Structure to design on (659 residues):
């Protein structure tokens, strides 16, 4: 006989290419399958709690995007951006006004949602999109939000005109008045309307700003003066707006070093625009002082800045060609100095800060990288976080959000699931796992709470032949809610449970008064518990799901030959599991033939809920036998398919080796 021990699972789900790397430490800490279990940094695999049904989106025929609005861990919102509207979720409920979901009109259509970028400071969130002027979302109260175009009265503008074209001003030139600008050659376009220009006198010493409010012809336009303008002869010293329907609008936005930065217009894809220090809508570069606005280009191949983020020390810009880290030297003037970071390009998906490092998706959308500064080469390097599972994001990554508690992690929307990687550099942990639901996950947001972070998702399901999109969140309270899209009942003992209209026609699982009460089809929004079962006074009702663990093919070193069991047929004969707060578990050598692990004896009263195994401290479930056969790839499969918790601390199995 031979024995195999696995004492931790925090290497997560390993890729198929690592099948033969039993020589590596992560092989003994990893899993072939890890679905709806979280491999904790400490080592155990913990079954995820179920999701709670919160609300249906406004129009289930259209996609939506969830966005975090975080003022503090006790004052935060998830925003439902949809087709020309925004709705608001606070905590575990939808914000309402007058008994209906509170919403405001948004300028963004359904097709625009994937390109939105956000930067928040206090009660204000700035929004960038390449086809729209920057917008500002402001919160005054839970039911008092406004969204309006950013009033960038002073710039940004391009460099001073270098052609022979002159512009002559007529009309009233005081601040707030209307002026008419006449160009000597074709200069203006109807798509310039709304953009801010600048003009100076013939000496280029006095600069004023004005917003185009009307287009008459290619040589004549009307403007609202943002500052006083200056009389004089026709001047060549004029400055075209950097942002307009002609040159495009920035697609990236971030706060850094007391400034608001925008970047990535169509005409100037590598140009970064920084506001005046502590004046986030002022882009005046006239006085050339240290707190003045900034405008500079990133070095690198000609491609477009997709996103910006501040890591505290640097403003980081992600492009399809790589990353650039920009620092700002403060003196009489502020001088940006850009360092080319990495040559691994980034996709459109926003990079994030995880701990003290920037993590971003590769331009192929199928892998993510973590940046680190190398003190030996004095350069930034990218660490591939998919090196232990190169296939897990093969269906492409569409969103990525940071989880801080209970473990530091990244939640990625990919292929209709949440693909999550735990990341703890101090423990050298980088482990992937899957959260699957009955349906397709389309968007995710993560908000802090006083305990675990709360993860919200948009799930697309088919209900009675119709497409439905629901907003749900993963339970964070220490309760036995292990069903999805669930509702909770508490009241008088009953056999009729309603409030399930959102799951019409689906089969739901019921945990009633701490015991499994069976599976039932939802008819007319309710289910009926048969007379053969006890009436229920407290219940969690929702869609059942499987939580699955599968070990990597078990490989043992053979002292006699110096080889391993990888090339010999091996059979698992029995197993021991160390479990914590667990019941309702199955085990086997394949998921299609599992044996139930008994947790109840004939002496137990059948109508009463049993205490969880290892309820106060992990305990050993020993001498578990199940059917297995000799194979070159022996594995242990563990499944929790009932609405109960499960934490697997470690396991040991006994094997017979053929030959």
């Amino acid at each position: 006989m031979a024995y195999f021990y696995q004492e931790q699972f925090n290497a997560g789900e390993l890729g198929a290419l690592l099948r033969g790397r039993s020589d590596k430490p992560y092989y003994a800490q990893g899993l072939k399958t890890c679905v709806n279990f979280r491999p904790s940094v400490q080592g155990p695999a913990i079954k995820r709690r179920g999701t709670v049904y919160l609300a249906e989106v406004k129009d289930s025929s259209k996609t939506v995007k969830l966005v975090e609005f975080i003022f503090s861990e006790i004052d935060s919102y998830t925003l439902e951006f949809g087709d020309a509207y925004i709705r608001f979720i606070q905590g575990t409920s939808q914000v309402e006004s007058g008994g209906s979901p509170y919403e405001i009109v948004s300028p963004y259509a359904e097709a625009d949602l994937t390109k939105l970028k956000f930067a928040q400071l206090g009660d204000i969130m700035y929004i960038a999109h390449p086809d729209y002027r920057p917008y500002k979302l402001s919160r005054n109260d839970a039911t008092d939000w406004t969204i309006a175009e950013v009033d960038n009265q002073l710039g940004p503008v391009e460099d001073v005109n270098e052609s022979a074209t002159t512009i002559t001003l007529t009309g009233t030139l005081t601040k707030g008045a209307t002026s008419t600008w006449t160009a000597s050659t074709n200069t203006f376009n109807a798509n310039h309307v709304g953009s801010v220009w600048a003009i100076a006198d013939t000496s280029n010493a006095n600069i004023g700003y004005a917003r185009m409010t009307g287009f008459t012809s290619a040589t004549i336009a009307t403007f609202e003066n943002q500052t006083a303008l200056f009389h004089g002869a026709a001047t060549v010293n004029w400055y075209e707006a950097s942002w307009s329907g002609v040159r495009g609008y920035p697609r990236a936005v971030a706060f850094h070093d007391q400034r608001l930065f925008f970047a990535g217009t169509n005409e100037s894809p590598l140009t970064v625009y920084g506001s005046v220090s502590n004046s986030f809508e002022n882009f005046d570069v006239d006085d050339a002082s240290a707190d003045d606005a900034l405008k500079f280009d990133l070095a690198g191949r000609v491609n477009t800045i997709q996103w910006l983020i501040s890591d505290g020390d640097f403003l980081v810009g992600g492009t399809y060609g790589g990353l650039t880290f920009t620092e700002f030297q403060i003196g009489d003037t502020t001088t940006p100095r850009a360092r080319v970071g990495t040559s691994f390009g980034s996709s459109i998906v926003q990079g994030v800060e995880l701990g003290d490092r920037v993590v971003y998706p590769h331009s192929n959308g199928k892998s993510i990288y973590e940046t680190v500064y190398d003190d030996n080469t004095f350069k930034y390097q990218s660490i591939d976080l998919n090196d232990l599972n190169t296939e897990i994001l093969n269906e492409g990554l569409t969103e990525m959000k940071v989880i801080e508690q209970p473990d530091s992690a990244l939640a990625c929307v990919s292929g209709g699931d949440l693909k999550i990687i735990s990341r703890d550099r101090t423990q050298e942990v980088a482990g992937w796992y899957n959260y699957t639901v009955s349906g397709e996950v389309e968007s995710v947001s993560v908000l802090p709470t006083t305990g675990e972070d709360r993860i919200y998702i948009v799930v697309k399901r088919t209900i009675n032949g119709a497409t439905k999109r629901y907003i749900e969140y993963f339970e964070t309270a220490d309760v036995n809610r292990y069903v999805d899209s669930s509702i909770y009942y508490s009241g008088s003992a009953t056999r009729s449970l309603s409030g399930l209209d959102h799951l019409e026609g689906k089969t739901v699982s019921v945990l009633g008064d701490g015991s499994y009460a069976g599976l039932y089809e939802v008819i007319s929004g309710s289910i009926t518990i048969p007379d053969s079962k006890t009436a229920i006074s407290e219940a969690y009702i929702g869609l059942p799901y499987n939580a699955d663990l599968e070990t990597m093919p078990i490989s043992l070193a053979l002292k006699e030959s110096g080889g391993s069991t990888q090339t010999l047929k091996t059979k698992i004969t029995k197993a021991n599991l160390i479990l914590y707060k667990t019941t309702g578990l199955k085990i086997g050598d394949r998921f299609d033939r599992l044996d139930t692990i008994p947790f109840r004896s004939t002496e137990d009263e059948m109508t009463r809920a049993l205490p969880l195994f290892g309820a106060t401290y992990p305990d050993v479930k020993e001498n578990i036998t199940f059917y297995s056969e000799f194979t070159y790839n022996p594995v242990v499969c563990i499944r929790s398919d009932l609405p109960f918790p499960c934490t697997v601390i470690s396991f040991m199995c006994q094997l017979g080796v053929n030959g």
